[in-house]
Amino acid sequence: MNISLCIGAYKGQDAIYHLEKIREHGFHGLEYYAWWNLDLVEVAKAQERLGVGIIATCTNEFNLVDGTKREAYIAGLAETIEACRRLGTRSIISQTGKALEGVSREPQIEAMVETLKRCASLCERANVVLELEPLNGLVDHPGHFLQASDEAVRIIDAVDSPNVKLVFDVYHQQITEGNVTRNATRYRDRINHYHIADNPGRKEPGTGELNYVHILNAINQAGFDGFVGLECGYTVDPDLALDRFKRDILQKIG
Fold first, then answer.
1. What does the DSSP assignment read for 12-61?
2. CA–CA distance, 200 with 210 (Å, rounded to integer)
3. How far is it, in rounded angstroms, from Cα 39 to Cα 26?
4. Phi, psi (degrees; rounded to nearest 5) at 111
């Protein structure tokens, strides 16, 4: 598996500083969410110089459950795909937006599937993967529509494209449903990318209740060779935390 850092790991520092730290630690890429805040030319030059780059970004529109916002979402995705082309980025993360009040889940799922089917052809032509991310509604994202991994898989299966998959966030799914090792491996063929952080607190792995040696070993043994992103805060200096993560967790992954 490949390890990515997320922007914000080094507070107040820009994307290029993060890329330099990624190379220093021997990791493999950066997740930078708001691509529209970047100087794409300068970042592309830094990526070429450093040999590591931005491996995931976000859509600039987030509402998939409201069919009236479909055209805006697709237009935003097209802009994001162009930014990805310029940066060599191959994954685009999307949330679904909050559930619509007074509307049952099925019409919202149908709207989402229809939008994603239209997005799939854009992604297939560009060779990028659009990743849906379930988020927990109990602690961090009250009202977010997509929360459970089984419902997320149902939507992905309905879209039926190799370029529309999931990002499985272990922290969110621990809060939403638990059973993370089984779900993280059972849905392996629908997952393009993992996020990790410990719970409670969303800090670096090894600071909470999750056994990340066990979880990452299971993911590795399931044949996953993509990116695992450290989407977490840090309880100590980030360089110290990352050294501990490599020593106490990564070195024990077989």
1. T--HHHHHHHHHHHT--EEE-S-GGGS-HHHHHHHHHHHS--EEEEE-S-
2. 9
3. 25
4. -65, -40
Q: Which residue has the tokens 């077989």?
A: 254
CATH architecture designation of domain 2-252:
Alpha-Beta Barrel (3.20)
The answer, yes or no, to whether the previous bond of 134 is cis (omega within 30 of 0) is no
Render the burial of 36-59: b for 16+ CB within 10 Å, e for the rest.
eebeeeebbebbeeeebbbbbbbb
Spatial distance between the Cα atoms of 191 and 207, rounded to a whole number of angstroms: 25
Burial 62-88 (b: 16+ CB within 10 A, else e): bbbbbbebbeebeebbeebbebbeebe
Contact in structure between 149 and 168 (CB atoms under 8 Å):
yes
Q: Grade residue 110 by pLDDT with cuts at 50, 70 and 90.
A: very high
pLDDT at 180: 97
pTM of full prediction above 0.85: yes
- Can you tell me the distance from the alpha carbon of 97 to that of 234, in angstroms, rounded to the nearest whole number? 27
Domain boundaries, the chain: 2-252
